[in-house]
Design a protein that fits this description.
Elements (H helix, E strand, L loop, with lengths): L1 H66 L13 H26 L17
Length: 123
């Protein structure tokens, strides 16, 4: 009886290990298939991205061509009167701030004397 149990146990051990090896081989095959599918999807996505980039380049080229053909073709290029006025104002502002900075550096203000602390109230 003991011999029969030992033989059955040995058979189970051999069958168990062989089934594990077979399962591992099957998993490797499945993993290989999954990797191939992922690569194919990535390649398809890259192709789509390249196509969309090319399409966008085409659109921007069309916009550049049509951009020059606007209502303002007859007007001369240059700054408008308003832009010239604001430029003059900004120059004046810069000069004023520069003079203020120069005067502050040249003659620092005299320190004001601190007043004595207020006397504490008696309780």
């Amino acid at each position: 009886m003991q011999k029969l149990i030992v033989v059955a146990f040995a058979a189970l051990c051999l069958i168990g290990t062989s089934s594990l090896v077979l399962a591992e081989e099957a998993m490797k095959g499945e993993m290989g298939n999954m990797k191939d599918e992922m690569k194919a999807e990535n390649d398809a996505m890259k192709g789509d991205m390249k196509a969309s980039k090319e399409e966008m380049k085409g659109k921007t080229k069309e916009q550049e061509k049509t951009k020059g053909k606007t209502k303002d073709q007859g007007k001369a290029k240059g700054k408008t009167k308003d832009q010239k006025k604001t430029k003059g104002k900004s120059k004046e502002h810069k000069e004023k701030t520069k003079t203020h900075k120069d005067t502050a550096k040249a003659a620092p203000a005299a320190p004001t004397p601190m007043s004595a602390p207020a006397p504490a109230a008696a309780p």
